[in-house]
Amino acid sequence: MARFRARLALLGSAATLTAAALAPVQLAGAQPAAAADHQWVALGDSYTAGVIAAAGDTFEEPRDGCERTDRSYPQVIDRDLGSLFELTNVSCGAATIENVTSRAQSPIGRNVPGNPDPDYPFPPVPPQSEAVQPGTDLITVGVGGNTLGFADILTKCLELSQNGGGGTPCKNDLAAGLPARLAKVRSEYDQMLTVLHERAPQAKILAVGYPTVIPKDTSTCTPNNWEQFGSITQGDLNWLRTEVLEPLNKAIEKSTGTLDAASFVNLYDSSQNHSVCDSRKWMEGILTLPAHLSLVHPNASGHRNAADHVEEAMLDVVGVN
């Protein structure tokens, strides 16, 4: 039903744009296009913004370095439900929870070793929460992985596995510090939800979790395949799934449960058979051939799945379903 309404909304929007292009002045008796019913602000990190080429093209000019792409889930939902929700999308690649709550961010664009971004450096962008206003009706937020330091953990796992062999070199080196990392996520997430609620007391907040990245059966991952996890050992992949990524989602879900206005959107279960190592994958690995550094991010199919689940939650919390 949501998809049917979405297509009607999209057709209606297209018709309005076409009419506007053909008529530079409003005809007598014509009614202006109706404003969207709900004001929606999308916050988050690269799993929200899109960032990688497999999640579409950047579309904003001038670029601000946050790398929001046209096939990321906020933009997909905007095309589906634009007549109901007016989107303000300030998600940004590499954002931490603090970058949502209170700290300005210096975006990195697609500035990677050996392939510098021609527009780098970018001016700082304000804390994402500043986009939330008293009249905001709905907030979606997908963040936490950078506060946990998942990219740094992944990079360390790659470094420690370069000498070959099996075992769990990454777990052995990093496991002791993981509880403190998770506690930091939980504490800062609680604070972020409080700030968002204070800025928009009537808004519903949807906390969007992270999808499945690593399969339950890690023997399906091919060693030294850089379209998957490169040299990271099977043992460390199991550790990353059960002790890093799954607890990250649980921490976010627990924080969400502390605020009546907030709900958790679970992307993990629906993406179980679409990990980096699955044939029908919704996640890209370390690299996306021929020459794109993806560093384990959702592709357009992953964002379409996220859009489906977030859309359903959005319609539910505003009473449209």
UniProtKB/TrEMBL annotation:
Q: Which InterPro entries match?
A: SEST-like, SGNH_hydro, SGNH_hydro_sf
Q: Which residues are connected by disulfide bridges in this protein?
A: 66-92, 157-170, 221-277
Which residues are the active-site ones?
46, 297
Q: Per the record, a Pfam family?
A: Lipase_GDSL_2
> What is this protein called in UniProt?
SGNH/GDSL hydrolase family protein
List, alphabetically, the Gene3D superfamilies matched: SGNH hydrolase (3.40.50.1110)
Which keywords, in A-to-Z order, does the entry hold? Answer: Disulfide bond, Hydrolase, Signal
Q: Quote one Gene Ontology molecular function term.
A: triacylglycerol lipase activity
Record-annotated SGNH hydrolase-type esterase domain positions: 42-304
One GO BP on record is: triglyceride catabolic process
* Signal sequence residues: 1-35
